[in-house]
Amino acid sequence: MSGRSARGGGPRTGPAVEILGADDLLALAGTLADLLVDTVAGGASVGFLHPLDRTDAVAWWRAQAGAVRAGELSVRVCRDGDRVLGTVTVAYADKPNARHRAEIRKLMVHRDARGRGLGRALLAAAETAAAEAGVTLLMLDTETDSPAERLYRAAGWTVLGVVPGHAEDPGGTLRPTTFFYKGPSGVFSTAAGTGSGSCSAR
Q: Shortest CA distance to 90 belongs to which of 151, 176, 197, 4?
């Protein structure tokens, strides 16, 4: 894998969190698409409606390669061989007065790989990478009362507020969205468990 590797605490105990370069992302676009389709089918609100066509999912991932190459996005995955089990993206702000902040996007874990701490590990790796890049303020949003919201609360994120009817869930029903932030702090990943779980960071 190209690019700087994410670092994390604890021994490696299975699949590792890896950073993807643009070429890596293109090579894994198919399995990333499978993960996205599964996430949407499972009811997670990640910007798409169900059913999500796999061809569209592949095209969406391939379209991210330019931003990865430009350093605007940093995509990390946890995989078992060639199969991606989970992913998370850090989106860096491009405005001159906002270089200190970034956004966590598309934290997803395949339904058959949940319950192993992969979500915590991916979140911790993203937080650590952001801190290493000089980011002192992280932001994200997720569907209110979702499993993802519980994860972020447990990981020490602060609720900024809830916007009712902000986005449709995969079934097309408008749901509230909870907005979170974390920081300012030089180290984000402590509350996230420093990458604990069977998907160790490297």
A: 4
CA dihedral sign, ordered 19, 22, 27, 31: positive
Looking up tokens 């399995």, which residue turns up? 31
pLDDT digits (tens, 9 = 90+) for 119-163: 999 999 999 999 999 999 999 999 999 999 999 999 999 999 999
Q: Is-contact 125 201, C-beta < 8 A?
A: yes
Name the burial class of residue 94, with classes exposed (0-12), middle (13-18) and buried (19+) by CB atoms within 10 angstroms of its CB.
Answer: exposed
75-107: pLDDT as tens digits: 999 999 999 999 999 999 999 999 999 999 999
Report whether 66 contacts 75 (CB < 8 A).
no
Secondary element (H or E) of residue 74? strand 73-80
92, 40 contact by CB (below 8 A): no
Q: Which residue has the tokens 């940093």?
A: 74
Distance between CA atoms of residues 122 and 88, nearest Å: 6
The tally of CA atoms less than 13 A away on the side-chain side of residue 149 is 16
Residues 6+ apart with CB under 8 A from 83: 31, 34
Nearest CA-CA partner of 135 in 74, 195, 192:
74
Structure tokens at 177: 């969205």
d(CA 62, CA 66): 8
